[in-house]
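Attaching the record inline, Q. Sequence:
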Amino acid sequence: MWTILRGVMCWEKYQQETAKTLGIVGTPVAWGNGPKEFPALVTTYMPPSQAGQPPKLVSAYVQVADCEALLAVAGIKVVRPDGNKTVATAEKATPAAVTPTQGNFNRWVAAYLLALTRELREVGALKPEPFEQSLMESLSLVDEATTEKNDEYLKTMDQTDRRIIDRLTQD
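Structure, as predicted:
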């Protein structure tokens, strides 16, 4: 879950509430410096720790510039309260402007899929062999849908599958 932090005091309150939620109140935890700027979005993950070791927390932040870049790629104009447009629509973005963010996007997609896979395995909803087979079948579907640009083939796919393939395979 993501939380909006409007300032330093919100960051301090977030730390207190997250410590309560995770059951680590009074435990020494290194939170780091917090976001570089405010407002920001934050989420925190506590990986399993070894017995006798203090918990480690990993926080991720989304800064305003990150949100603006994502909205630009989605073709959404951002207008600040003072009326200034801060980003162009995706149609006006140049490949050079988009290229640096592709690596970060790929990194986050990989992390998201990894986290999802780990959670599903942990609760027993995912077993390695069937998943690997399903992954290879899905890769084949993506290749077939994107290599041949077969509109008829895409129409046979579930709407969610089509949307995922369309979004993640755009050039």
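The mean pLDDT is 75. The longest strand covers residues 40-45.

More tomorrow.
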